[in-house]
Amino acid sequence: MNKINFGKIGAPIDPPLLLKMQKDSFAGFLQKDVAAEKRKPQGLEGAFKDIFPLTNSDESLVLEYVSYAFGEPKYSVEESIARDATYALPLKVKLRLMHKKEDGKEKELSEQEVYFGDVPLMTDTATFIINGAERVVVSQIHRSPGVIFEEDEEKRVTVLGKPLYFARMIPYRGAWVEFEFDQNGIVYVRIDRKRKIYATTFLRSLGFESDDEILNLFRESKEVSLDAPSAALANEYVAEDIFDKSTGEIIVDAGKELKEELVKKLQEKGFTSVAVLKDASILITLKKDPIKSQKEAVNHIYKVLKTQEFIMQERAQGFLEELLFKSVRRYDLTTVGRYKILKKFGPVFEYFSKNFNLNIPADNKRTLTREDVVVTLKYLLALYNGETEFTEGKQTIKIGLDDIDHLGNRRVRSVGELLENQIRIGLVQMARLVKEHMNNQDKTNVTPRSLVNITQFVAQIRKFFGTSQLSQFMDQINPLAELTHKRRLSALGPGGLNRKRAGFEVRDVHHTHYGRVCPIETPEGPNIGLITSLATFARVNPYGLIETPYKKVEDGKATDKVDYLTADKEDEFFVAQANTPLDNKGNIVSDSVHGRRFDSFVFQPPTKVDYMDISPMQVISVSAGLIPFLEHDDANRALMGCNMQRQGVPLLKTEVPLVSTGIEEKVARDSGVVIISKSDGEVVSVSADEIMIASKSGEIEVYNLRKYGRSNQDTCIDQTPLVVLGDVVKKGQVIADGPATKDGQLALGQNLLVAYMPWDGYNFEDAMLLSEKLIQDDRFTSVHIREFQAEARETKGRPEEITKDIPNVGSEDLLNLDEDGVVKAGSYVQRGDILVGKTAPKGEQQTTPEERLLRVLFGKKAEDVQDASLRVPPGVSGKVIGVRTFVRLEKLSEKERKKKQEEIREVYDAAKAKLRKDKKEQLAGANKSESSQIESLYASKEEILKKSYEAEKERLKKGDELPVSVNKIVKVYIAAKLKVQVGDKLAGRHGNKGIVARILPVEDMPRLPDGTPVDCVLSPLAIPSRMNVGQLLEIMLGWAGKELKTQMITPVFDGATEEQIKDYVEKAKAQLFAEKKKSLAAIGLKGKELDDALAKFAQESLPTSDCKVTLYDGRTGEAFMEKVTVGVMYVMKLNHLVEDKMHARSTGPYSLITRQPLGGKAQFGGQRFGEMEVWAIEGYGAAHILQEFLTVKSDDVEGRVKMYDSIIRGESISEPGIPESFKVLVNELRALSLNVELLNKETTPKPEEKE
Fold first, then answer.
1. Distance (Å, rounded) from C-alpha 1017 to C-alpha 1038?
2. Of 95, 573, 1065, 1103, which one has the fewest beta carbons inside 10 Å?
3. Does domain 751-780+980-1133 have CATH number 2.40.270.10?
4. Helices and strands in the chain: count of H runs, count of E runs
5. Which fold has domain 221-277?
6. How far apart are CA 228 and CA 231, in angstroms?
7. 120: pLDDT confidence band, cut at 50, 70 and 90?
């Protein structure tokens, strides 16, 4: 098929590998292939280095960490899935135990490798296999550590009318330190959300002991005139000591308030102006603060934090040090937090370093320093005083409040970091136990292995993968669903937000999301805005901040240089759009350029442009990038379009979309469902499940294809070869398609000929009318694979057995079972059929002496066991495509083992014989060079066959690992081929979803003038109010593409214009006209006859330029009154199939508490008849129906048994009894001491006996 790309703006770089964020994060965590001494202090290495060394109470024993190494995984990925196992690596940690002698010398006691359990390993497609299920660890977006400044939520102000601000020093792990003002302008600090203390007390505890020292740090003065009105001089404090000009003595001490008498006194002395403090907050706080020494301050803080009256001095001093300043274990800013603090306060640090000799903290300093506290306080005071910037030397920073939704203040925690945090928790719990063991054990025979107990460590990893909110069961409906699940960003989860408490601001689109987070793709419902998706070109930097690429512009000329910018860096620049017109040399052509600065769109001259967008697609995510003409759709519908593409079921016959956006191939490739050649070479063998390529180096590469695998959502994973024998392939070429792909492109649906018109009300309200031809051609047919499992367990009496010998089952029910009682592969099964025959012992019964005698005479009877077979549940039917049996080694008898060995041997011998026969045939007609290639090819094939034979033999020898008390597990896989049917949900890519309301015979469908019936009829009313006009442009371009046999590629925001679409519609019409002319000429028409026939054809059969054409009713053959819009739309079948939803119940399970039927299809429940439904029946006055609903059909236990009985016997239905809910009401009233009794009409109440 030809391709036409309408894109005008090519991106200078390709989007990064779409799974890069996940893969890089896990590789950084594991550092598997890095030599032990070269590992960075992050991930596993970082956790071990932070927790170790561990010492006992007198520090005589020290357990040091040396390094770690990994073993090999026990099972492959495929085996792990089949066996319900976890795909993991054994972790071995080398620990060294040292003995410190009293003279300070160290002696090594022992160094050992300790097994630390298994760490789940990421597969090539960035998933984890936990207990046989594929899971994804979603990245979390959370508040970055650092210092943030915010205004009081209630917008309160001080006595002087200044806003109340507060500063928060937020670490990654540890106690928060918060500074705040009260109404009087006094500065307080709160440590770890405890009671507030004066900020000056905190400063004293840090070593700034005297009042002068503290005042000097924050002293800034301004001159005021003493002639100013007294109101202007109120609340001003003298900045420095004032000396008498004549005598030199101090008249006024620094810090005195300028009251009226003081002003008069200074005026008398000849002063016209005086230096006052710019801000007196610290001075006021000092006056209020009763504490005057460091020792008192430390004790006071200890008292507040520990709420203890009795204080030990050295413990108090050590406590604060340990809490904030010393231990990374207790307080960790991380490199990100430190980077943010240094970036925010750069010039302020310089100022204190220059004027007060305070140190600037190093980049790798992860705990708090006293300088951080001083700098934060300085910034807070500047903010309080309304200053807007701070300058020191050449550096200037803006002073202002922080926006917590700004992506400069939020960062991404990916798999590696989340897992590292869990491992840290596990190690801390383990460290406690190790210290206890160290104190209790004898030092002579202690070893690292005897000290370490890994139970907590292993449990923590299991808990994270099994139960964490961020470890999710993978959405595997189709390749796009897999890919977007791995690129998802969640604000929920541990340490994140709570969906009930998250407000509107957090969920809203923020200007910093541009190019970083997709503004469209997010769920509808309670999680809207909290779960988002990474934009196409975005990447996460080592600090966890999201970056997006921009093209550098210098002096109005776009260069080839691409810079990745974080959100806070981008705020400093003016960024032009990607479609800014450029000449051949890259110069900006227009006089004023439209672009973004901070949060607004403005016009600037070309010389003021700093950067340019790299591509119009960089704003949105991959899912949104697959919607053609997205720019013509309303955002709400585009959101639905994104989410519904993820629900498209992989179809049996796939079709590439005729109108695409050009990233379909990238999605298919990066999702990992297609197979890609690893090197250049030639295809030497192709079969349904294997491709062999001889590379140029002479090696033969084998690619195994996955056939009829089951996904997490029961859709079918099937790979098919795209190459044939003898093809020459290049490295990176797609050689096999996966599910929902075609020729290496994502293909989720079918190209249908659609018409927008009403049709007898069958497409009212989003319903759809389909043609029967779609079913005949299998165009919306999908394969669904279900797994059923039977377990034979050890029970109290005797074990359950899997057998063909089942009590009370007729021979016709056993037809599909083999001699072991397991269904044969290839059998067609439906509801109620036996899949696995199983018997279980009956409960213990009392037997009579006669029965015991009969048993002794005739052996035990079959009634000892009951039928516990696995049967096909209701609503399921299909073909058995596979059976797998797992047996515990000791439960396999010698006879069975030999039989299995024989079977494996027979299969191997047959396959080997076939290979040799094929080889002989191929060698017969080959020349010398071909012969050597054939020899090496068949040698590889035999080698592979032998390996699989050995693996099977080994598996039989070892037996299978099964859960406790399970002797045997049988898994049966049933494939069902589901055709489209009435009730299925279909959707386009523009959020235009609908349910199939009727499937019409082909002959009744509306048809085009040339007799072609349309495939689908949609309602025209679905477009105006929904404003997803993209679908109309799609069907017009799609029609042109179909007629011209061309795939139209129209990238998002850079696609085909209306004029271009009309041009291609005209080209398609011209082609049809030419073909018609040729066919008419071939039957001998000439001259006027020919011209008239062509004119009639053009008038009646060709569509107008906006694709409107006269349609004819298939039932009557008459033309419809108006012309109808007809074109080709790409339609998907979604995973909401009526087959899975259809459900009916006569009787079934009841709730134990309320005695009402259970709800839902899974419980085989009933339909809830709720309060509003009762009102509806009351409205009709249908009393008997209502009584029936509320009693026998609900919770009248006796009544429903009688009712069922009388229906079976064909008798008249008895009166309903008392429902259970009424009894509950009566009992509740009794609990309130109200005795309620039910009386018949005849009976009269008994009179109360008087005492």
1. 16
2. 573
3. yes
4. 32, 59
5. Molybdopterin biosynthesis moea protein, domain 2 (3.90.105)
6. 8
7. very high
Question: Residue 513: what are its φ and ψ, rounded to 5°?
Answer: -70, -20
Collect all residues with Cβ–Cβ distance below 8 Å to 253 and sequence separation of at least 6.
238, 241
Please tell me the class of the 503-621 domain.
mainly beta
Give the start-to-end residue ranges of the domains of the chain.
20-142+411-486, 145-220+278-407, 221-277, 503-621, 751-780+980-1133, 784-892+965-976, 903-958, 1145-1231
**φ, ψ dihedrals at 65, nearest 5°:** -95, 135
Query: Is it the case that residue 784 has pLDDT exceeding 60?
Result: yes
How high is the pLDDT of residue 869? 96
Give all strands (DSSP E) within 401-538, no chain letters. 410-413, 471-473, 488-490, 531-533
* C-alpha 995 chain-centroid distance: 28
Quote the Cα angle for 111-114-119, to 5°. Answer: 145
To which H or E segment does residue 636 belong? helix 635-645
d(CA 437, CA 450) in angstroms, rounded, equals 9
Using alpha carbons only, give the angle 1188, 1190, 1194 rounded to the nearest 5 degrees. 95
Question: Which CATH number applies to 784-892+965-976?
Answer: 2.40.50.150
pLDDT at residue 860, as a whole number: 58
What is residue 844's predicted lDDT score, i.e. its pLDDT?
65
Which of 352, 1042, 1040 has the alpha carbon at shortest distance from 656? 1042
1005: closest CA among 1114, 1123, 1124? 1114
Contact by Cβ (8 Å): 213, 245? no
Number of neighbouring beta carbons within 10 Å of residue 1200: 20
Q: Which CATH code is given to the segment(s) 145-220+278-407?
A: 3.90.1110.10
Beta carbons of 932 and 922 less than 8 angstroms apart: no
Q: Are 1110 and 622 in contact (CB under 8 A)?
A: no
Q: Is the pLDDT of residue 764 over 60?
A: yes
Is residue 549 a contact partner of residue 13, using CB atoms and an 8 Å limit? yes
**What integer pLDDT is reported at residue 1186 of this predicted model?**
95
DSSP SS3 for 29: helix
Output the pLDDT for position 723.
96
Residue labelled with tokens 């035990």: 860
Report pLDDT for 920: 83
Alpha-carbon gap, residue 905 to 894, rounded angstroms: 16
Residues with Cβ < 8 Å from 961, sequence gap 6 or more? 83, 85
Identify which has the larger pLDDT, 924 or 576. 576
Report CA Rg, the chain.
39
Q: What pLDDT is attached to residue 1241? A: 72
Q: Any idea which of 416-425, 678-687, 861-870 has the lowest mean pLDDT? A: 861-870
Q: What pLDDT is stored for residue 1249 in this prediction?
A: 58
Q: Print the SS3 string covering 229-298.
A: CHHHHCCCEECCCEECCCCCCEEECCCCECCHHHHHHHHHCCCCEEEEECCCHHHHHHHHCCCCCHHHHH
Question: pTM here?
Answer: 0.92
161, 166, 152, 159: which is closest to 383 by C-alpha? 166
In the structure, what pLDDT confidence band is assigned to residue 1063 with cuts at 50, 70 and 90? very high
Whole-angstrom distance, CA of residue 1202 vs CA of residue 68? 71
- 3-state secondary structure at position 831: coil
CATH of 20-142+411-486, picked from 3.90.1100.10, 3.30.499.10, 3.50.50.60, 3.30.360.10, is 3.90.1100.10
Average of per-residue pLDDT values in the chain = 91
Q: What does CATH list as the number for 1145-1231?
A: 3.90.1800
Question: Could you read off the pLDDT of 1157-1176 as tens digits, one per residue?
Answer: 999 888 889 999 999 999 99
Let me know: does 1016 contact 752? Beta carbons within 8 Å. yes
Q: Are 207 and 302 in contact (CB under 8 A)?
A: no
